[in-house]
Recover the amino acids of this structure.
């Protein structure tokens, strides 16, 4: 008995500061936000009472111009383009480097470097690059197209009502592809050399080697990459604020929360925040469970 | 049940924790009965100069009290509003704070955070010094809660004289039809987008100027106090005209702030821009002299106003000092000192025009005789929630041009945020 107590008490003491901080600042505040989202606190006065899930249903039934649904739609376009873009680019770069390219370390740094820049800083630059002026007023990338006589490629970028959010994903892809590349590269390096040698001995072509032997081994890597880029994308705020500012065309739920908070509708802002937390949780939690299980197995 | 009580207890625990944090960090400025903490977002430029001018008058008129600058910079006031909201929530208000006069104050009035200043208006004789239309716009249920420091005009059409001359336009249009004809002339003379425009709130300003022309001042006032129906056929007609007006504007308007649109005007790529009269000070500061101005065509003598004002919050540490500050703000000397530097005009009608730039002198003349109407994006006509909804609806209309959707959205916003009459 004494022996057992001695083993768990120091451990608990050691992690208790972080446990307490987590309990207060993460889970406590989540609880506080959920509680707020169930009340009718639409101004700075104390709430009159609880309204159940009204604040949530109103987001879908009586939001002016279906603003919330529109912000979700924007988020879906952004997330899809961003995830597909980073995975494809990351995989291509990883494949190139994996073929033992010259000066691999240099290229790895070049591709990875954009990740070190903050979204706000790159957003300001991309705001200029994606200048929407066309023809003689063109600026940024449009000016390059115009100068090269490729006027038909000029684009309204993020101001396009339907595909604007796809353009908004370009800076995000630029920043995160290098990171996904690093994930894939690590995945490739984790595959034992014997497998490749065996495949070569069996007479597999390069294509067959990748298709049949290496890619199947990368499934966990792809899953991690999807989860990481996916949850980043769903919380996207800083990039959009610095490229377009808060406005209808590019509004996503995180920006909407901010706008709602500025107009003192605390309960509505809380409801959107909780909704956002839930959709991120739907993606992340099953993944964490999966990782937990596979770690236990091994 | 047990669980929800625990959640509530937890929430209370957090509430008190943050209250303590907020108290300890904000105790400093207002402490001591002689200090008056004035909370603004005037941290630089002409606004800071105006504030300094006001402080100069305060120092001589209220020598017993000490001015404490509580300015929070950045975000065109949005940072300051966040700080203010949390301080009011913690019941730690500054002695006075800056707020747009008019409906935007209703956020604070409904939250029971402001003292009634009607008695002071009588005592200081402000009721006669301000125009009757302004007093009517400021009065809420028979009470007045703020002292305006200045007046800006929103419905001003700025122009580039050279571009107009090239198109053969010599006289300002005074009807909407005349304006459309001028825009067509400009297009024919090679100016592809003669009307410079920016994003959502600037679009709402243009739309409101057009509404004033179409509805007249009384019906326009009714839009904000519940007297005019947003679903009416006259509104549909106005939105259709507005849609036509948008065809004369730059397509990349949603990427523009008002200063970007101003640049189009300065570069001669556009001939007109509708913007508030802070544009005069800005054009002067940028050294552009070739500009003209007129009231928006069809607005007649309607003066669409907005104002910065100061209030007396409840539970302040130094109410007497605050009253002295408010008296200074409302006084003729205070208003002259503030407005000559900031580029706006005094709300009082009895301030001499000496020392004011050309545009301001003209505006001061108009202010005395004009019919006053408020502005939504600048808070004199509607509170912040309403402003947000309207800005978003205009952003959508700019992208898709759906007339029915805009009208429905504007009506819904009025129903949700407007006065319940």
């Amino acid at each position: 008995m004494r022996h057992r107590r001695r083993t768990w008490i120091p451990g608990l003491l050691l992690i208790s500061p972080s446990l307490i901080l987590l309990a207060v600042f993460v889970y406590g505040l989540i609880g506080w936000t959920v509680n707020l989202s169930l009340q009718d606190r639409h101004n700075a006065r104390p709430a009159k009472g609880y309204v159940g899930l009204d604040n949530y249903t109103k987001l879908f039934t009586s939001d002016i111009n279906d603003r919330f649904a529109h912000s979700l739609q924007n988020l879906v376009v952004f997330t899809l383009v961003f995830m597909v873009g980073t995975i494809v680019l990351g995989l291509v770069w990883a494949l190139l480097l994996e073929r033992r390219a010259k000066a691999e370390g240099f290229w790895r740094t070049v591709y990875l470097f954009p990740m070190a820049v903050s979204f706000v800083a790159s957003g300001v630059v991309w705001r200029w690059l994606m200048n929407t002026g066309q023809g003689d007023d063109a600026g940024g990338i449009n000016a390059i197209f115009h100068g090269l006589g490729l006027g038909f490629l000029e684009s309204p970028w993020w101001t396009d009502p339907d595909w604007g959010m796809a353009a908004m994903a370009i800076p995000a892809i630029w920043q995160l592809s290098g990171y996904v590349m690093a994930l894939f590269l690590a995945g490739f390096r984790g595959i034992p050399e014997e497998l490749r040698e065996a495949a070569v001995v069996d007479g597999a072509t390069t294509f067959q080697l990748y298709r049949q032997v290496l890619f199947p081994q990368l499934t966990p890597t792809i899953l991690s990459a999807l989860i990481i880029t996916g949850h980043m994308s769903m919380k996207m705020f800083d990039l959009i604020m610095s490229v377009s500012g808060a406005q209808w065309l590019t509004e996503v739920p995180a920006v909407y929360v901010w706008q709602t908070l500025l107009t003192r509708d605390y309960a509505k802002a809380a409801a959107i925040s909780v909704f956002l937390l839930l959709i991120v949780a739907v993606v992340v939690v099953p993944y964490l469970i999966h990782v937990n299980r596979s770690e236990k197995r091994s | 049940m047990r669980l929800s009580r625990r959640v509530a207890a937890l929430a209370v625990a957090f509430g008190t924790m943050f209250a303590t944090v907020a108290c300890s960090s904000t105790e400093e400025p207002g402490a001591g009965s002689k200090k008056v903490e004035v909370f603004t977002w005037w941290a630089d430029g002409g606004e800071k100069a105006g504030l300094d001018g006001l402080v100069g008058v305060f120092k001589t008129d209220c020598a017993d009290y000490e001015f404490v600058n509580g300015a929070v910079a950045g975000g065109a006031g949005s940072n300051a509003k966040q700080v203010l909201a949390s301080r009011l929530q913690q019941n730690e208000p500054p002695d006075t704070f800056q707020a747009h006069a008019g409906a935007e104050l209703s956020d604070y009035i409904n939250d029971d955070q402001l003292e009634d200043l009607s008695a002071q208006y009588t005592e200081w004789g402000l009721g006669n010094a301000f125009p009757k239309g302004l007093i009517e716009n400021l009065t809420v249920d028979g009470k007045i809660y703020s002292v305006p420091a200045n007046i800006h005009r929103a419905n001003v059409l700025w122009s580039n004289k050279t571009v107009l001359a090239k198109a053969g336009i010599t006289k300002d249009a005074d009807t909407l039809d005349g304006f459309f004809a001028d825009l067509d002339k400009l297009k024919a003379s090679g100016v592809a987008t003669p009307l410079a425009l920016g994003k959502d709130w600037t679009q709402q300003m243009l739309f409101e100027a057009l509404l004033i022309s179409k509805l007249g001042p009384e019906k326009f006032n009714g839009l904000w106090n519940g007297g005019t129906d947003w679903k009416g056929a006259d509104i549909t007609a106005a939105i259709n005209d507005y849609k036509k007006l948008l065809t004369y504007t730059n397509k990349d308007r949603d990427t523009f702030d008002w200063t970007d649109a101003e640049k189009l005007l300065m570069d001669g790529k556009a001939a007109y821009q509708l913007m508030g009269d802070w544009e005069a000070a800005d054009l002067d500061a940028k050294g552009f002299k070739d500009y003209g101005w007129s009231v928006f065509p069809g607005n007649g003598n309607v003066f669409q106003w907005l104002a910065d004002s100061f209030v007396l919050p409840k539970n302040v540490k130094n109410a007497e000092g605050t009253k002295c500050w408010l008296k200074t703000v409302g006084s003729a000397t205070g208003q002259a000192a503030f407005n000559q530097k900031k580029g706006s005009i005094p709300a009082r009608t009895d301030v001499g025009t000496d020392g004011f730039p050309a545009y301001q002198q003209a505006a001061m003349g108009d202010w005395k005789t004009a019919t006053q109407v408020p502005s939504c994006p600048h808070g004199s006509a509607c509170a912040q929630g309403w402003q947000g909804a309207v800005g978003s609806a205009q952003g959508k209309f700019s992208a898709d041009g759906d007339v029915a959707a805009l009208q429905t959205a504007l009506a819904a916003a009025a129903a949700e945020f407007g006065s319940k009459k």
